[in-house]
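The protein record passed on for reference:
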Amino acid sequence: MAAMPMPRSLLLILLLATPLLILPLAAAAVPTSNPDIDLEYLIKNAGLDDPTPATTATDPEDDGAPDFPGLDADYDDEDLFGDDDGPEEDSSHPSAADEAHVLLLTAANFTSVLAARRHVMVEFYAPWCGHCRALAPHYAAAASALAEQGVDVALAKVDATEDHDLAQAHGVQGYPTLLFFIDGVPRDYAGERTKDAIVAWISKKLGPAVQNLTTADEAEKIVTGDDVAVLAYLDHLSGAHSDELAAASRLEDTISFYQTTSPDVAKLFHIDPEAKRPSVVLLKKEEEKLTVFDGEFRASAIAEFVSANKIPLITTLTQETAPAIFDNPIKKQILLFAVAKESPQFLPIIKETAKSFKGKLLFVFVERDNEEVGEPVANYFGIAGQETTVLAYTGNEDAKKFFFSGEISLDTIKEFAQDFLEDKLTPSYKSDPVPESNDEDVKVVVGKSLDQIVLDESKDVLLEVYAPWCGHCQSLEPIYNKLAKYLRGIDSLVIAKMDGTNNEHPRAKPDGFPTILFYPAGKKSFEPITFEGDRTVVEMYKFLKKHAAIPFKLKRPDSSAARTDGADGSGSTTEGEKSSGSNPKDEL
């Protein structure tokens, strides 16, 4: 799967506030070498006049997606939970009869089906994808239910491994991807991958913005059937208040809106029949069943109220709920990690805290001893062992995390959540131990040492962020080592690498693996420059010559000794080669 993009900011305030660095006189005095001569020498000695790159930095087949992406709009929760490497039998996989109402689309019939049907939901899937197999029975059941209800919609699917170009044309970056087409125009479906959620979402899209409830029997079905419902108790079923409610409904994709003038219906929704109208309530099937709207009766205010109150006080993270959590407009999260037997001790504290932060924070429970979810998510956050842990997470934009320390109580967690909202917490980053020795040509950087090595204002630094399991990183390693050996002894230049799976830093965010970043001397308040050329010694050298803030000259063997060696044919070693311990030709 292609690597997921991770956004970066320019830190303009820091940039403008940082005084110009006065480089050391010795560094500034380094003469600029003729780049053409240096490059000719490099190519000659490296034997790279026709280089074959390990891969280009923009290779679409890069296997280096971060193991827990920024969870932005393009995220694929295969990366969150892991997945199988190949197909295997699944008892939940539906039979052909189960999928009688699911259309099979290919590049040959895709356009004609969308032209013939005004409303089409399309699932782009891969046969080997575990999440696709889990979705299949829900998707088939949703198709059957909608067909039985006579809803004007078709549910279809495309095997993206067979019709790769078709999937790519629609921006598919992970499996499964669900798109809903209205008159051929797609929009993402980011709801839960369950039958009820899909049916409710489509029904909301195609039905009236607000449904009228006139009898107690109709209301009873809604109260017992809908997971979440909004009811307005009005004087009239048309007019200004009804129009505001309809406008609010269009701003909220996933919740059904109802209106009534009946006191009997109002009672079923726990509204006092004598209450002042208009009144609005939100009803949920959970501990906090009823929430009363007390704001101004305007569409934006009602929609904001619904958005803040529709989600549970705390959501258990599963494969099914992950899209609703990570695609939620509320990005900041408080996560509780606890094993199942200990969770009853802590969940009431988190739930009570959540009541004070509706619409501001999401509260998520991760069952630590759940192998499917708890283990991979804990690994991403750097949580070892099964001790109960509370942390704050900023979500997709910058993916900062903040660990809570101390006794877990209502007062301490409320204070922690409030400090998180007010940006008073110090972020935590994963880091390997700082190596005791770091004398190789390629310097090893860890999270804790990045400030000292990479952000040293007196050095130009090239940093590779890699993953040990990444095939492209393994192919790059000997090439990167050769570059470092060739540039050894240049005091102003550092060639470095960091294991991006075990180390984090806000100034070194990978777009995938490998990511190669350059940090010019005296400009460390700028965002680093990403190397996007062919991954060869020559191309990386040319990149460094172009962007280095401190001019550098290649360290070559003593030329007179080399000529003597060539004249007498003795094969003796030059002083320069003795000092370096090897011949640059052999190294490169």
About this structure: Confidence is low (pLDDT under 50) at residues 1-33, 57-79, 81-97, 559-588. The chain has four domains: 103-204, 208-310, 315-422, 443-547.
